[in-house]
Amino acid sequence: MAKKTRTQHSVRNVMVGTGGYFFNLILSFVCRIMFTHVFNSVYLGVSSLFSNIFTMLSLAELGIGTAIIYALYKPIAENDKEKIASIVLLYKRAYRTVGLVVTVAGIAVMPFLHLIVGDSYTIPENMYVVYLMYLISTTSSYLFFSYKASLITAMQENWIVTGLGYIQGFVQNALQIISLAIFKNFYIYLAIQIASIIAYNFVISIIADKKYPYIKKAEPLPKEERSKIFKNLRYLIVYKLSGVLVHGTDNVITSYFKGLSTVGLSTNYTLLSTMCSSFINQIFTNLTASVGNLNASESIEKKFSVFKTINFANFWFYSWFGICIFVLGDDIVHLMFGASYVMEKSISFIIAINFFMAGMQQAVWTFRNTMGLFKYGRYMQCGTAAINLVVSIILGKYWGLFGILLATAIARACTNTWYDPYALFKHGFKMKPSKYFIKYFIYVALLFSIGAATFFACKYIDFKYLIVTLVVKGLICIVLPNLIIVLIYRKSNELQSLLAVVKSMKIVKKFHIDKILEKI
After folding, report:
1. Phi-psi bin for 188: left (phi > 0), alpha (psi -120 to 50), beta?
2. Which of 212, 463, 467, 473 is deepest in the core (most CB within 10 A)?
3. pLDDT tens column, 204-253
């Protein structure tokens, strides 16, 4: 596939991904505000806790999606329709099996649910009915047609999946807002979520069948091909299992030590970081298929050149948004949900640190997965999970929520923050990992320097009206970090490469923004 075509796919996918995000962000915030006004913080805790439980139960997926999507890159580049159809058939069967396993595992957890929830469950709805509704919401994606969305993504047409996702999000949030205003019923709220997920997957299935009709006439993959895919899957199993334990246990431990109310309060902060991550991930997720195509057809030098540009963009976005979470987090929570939902400043600080640490792995993970380097680091992730669990219990007992979140940062720093890039550079790029780590430490030093400058610039801003304070601080957070980064890197190859891609966008040319960018 030609470079121009790959770039066009990336640009279109990113534009659709980021373009519709802000509109849905506003609507989801409205829905969240309505939720907090209709229900108390315990409902937020229930929602977060059950979501975490099913995140852990979804470990049954064990990297099947990643392994099979990687297997699609080469036949897609070669336009081998028969092999594509066979791989999709394997994907379909695997995901149906996963859906059944998650369903059985979810039901098996039910007798122990009261032990997990503890005595803090104080909402009138039946705990088991609510739990079953979350179970249906989780398993519906596996049991129906979500594997076809992965095919569209692998074809570098993720803008279709993203666009439909935004339509689904708009309809779901709008209906949930209406239901909260009229019925104030948690069951109806969850039923709307389930129905929208099923409808989304159904529409995706219709589109995939029309765009790629040959997938309906698939023959099973030869045994050798299946063995190759499942070999990669074996490497991913441990990595996926450990990753779920790292990300899925914090709310469970918090619920045990501090109760559902604290879980509910913390989710308003983690909601900010999740929304920021979701926005940035629209960029990196929409680049994955193009990077996969790049890794299937280009030289090591070209791959490394693209990696440096993406890694710089990674630093820019995650440092900027991390600073915004730290500086603006308390004011946003106060404005949106009320003063009673504001927590100590240390919470927004450690959430911002975790946000940056996880985010700075995005470029590494994108190249690692699309290069098929699945066997490296699978046991290291086990170390992350073990350290996180043990340290969370210890620090959670003494420092509560801050200790639990700090444990996650400690676990990452001790393991995959250094090992994943080490494996990528040694086995993927065949280069010295020190090239990455020198750059990484420079980025971290810049993060703290720019973050400190922004924090002190905003520290004494306090107007009579909170909205005015937030707007002024927000403007500082938009201008100051970005201005410093541009001034420092204005002559770097990474920034120039980013500007070249941005200047190629039609919307940039239409409003003559490209001429402004040329002056940077």
Report:
1. alpha
2. 473
3. 889 999 999 999 888 888 888 888 777 766 666 666 666 666 666 677 77
Could you give the CA distance from residue 230 to residue 308 in angstroms, rounded to a whole number? Answer: 31
Give 254's contacts (C-beta < 8 A, 6+ positions apart).
Answer: 262, 263, 266, 396, 400, 401, 404
Report whether 354 contacts 276 (CB < 8 A).
no
pTM: 0.69
Largest CA distance in the chain: 70
Q: Which residues contact 326 (CB under 8 A, 6 or more apart)?
A: 348, 349, 352, 451, 455
Residue 147 has pLDDT above 90, yes or no: no
Length of the chain: 520
Distance (Å, rounded) from C-alpha 489 to C-alpha 468?
32
Q: Yes or no: say if 329 and 355 are a contact pair by the CB < 8 Å rule.
A: no
pLDDT of 453 over the 80 cut: yes
Chain Cα centroid distance, residue 510: 32
**Helix 260-297 with 250-258: angle, nearest 10 deg:** 170
Q: What is the pLDDT of residues 270-329, one digit of tens each?
A: 878 888 887 887 777 667 667 777 776 678 888 888 899 999 999 999 999 999 999 999
